[in-house]
Write a structure and sequence with these properties.
mainly alpha; 434 Repressor (Amino-terminal Domain); 2 domains
């Protein structure tokens, strides 16, 4: 059903799920890696940046057609949005959501991946064309982490 000025969009009975939040987080991460703003992404799919925010927070569900658009624009396969799901979240998905069921905890590393400095580091890292230089950089970072953690 396509929403028009006279009809409101159809909503799901129970609203968004933790899986919707996971998919939204993956959209946010990929958009960030590409250096794309919410406004830029919204313009490419004819949505406002506020709607992109709602998708990324998991406040609104994303339909399959829209997910296909995001995969095309962000240059990833649709499976990307479901990658790195915790085993708890996969179990939640397999059993189906039930009203009143507790939501699974988010992955402990999720906050690290959402930080702006992490995205900037990854973006900058892949701007280095020389594989040997990138490999040496990783070795340098590991050594710095080892020395600083003592």
């Amino acid at each position: 059903m396509i929403a028009t000025a006279k009809t409101a969009p159809r909503k799901t009975k129970d609203g968004p799920t933790p899986i919707d939040a996971h998919v939204g987080a993956r959209i946010r991460a990929r958009r960030g890696l590409l250096g794309m703003s919410q406004k830029d992404l919204g313009e490419k799919v004819s949505l406002t940046f506020q709607q992109i925010q709602k998708y990324e927070r998991g406040a609104n569900r994303i339909g399959s057609g829209r997910l296909f658009e995001f995969s095309r624009i962000l240059g990833v396969p649709i499976s990307y949005f479901f990658d790195e799901m915790s085993s708890e979240l996969k179990t939640y998905a397999e059993k189906g959501s039930k009203k009143g069921r507790p939501l699974p905890a988010s992955a402990p590393d999720a906050e690290i991946l959402d930080r702006r400095e992490t995205l900037e580091l990854v973006r900058t890292f892949y701007q280095i064309d020389d594989n040997l230089v990138r490999q040496r950089f990783v070795e340098l970072m590991r050594e710095a982490a080892r020395v600083c953690s003592k």
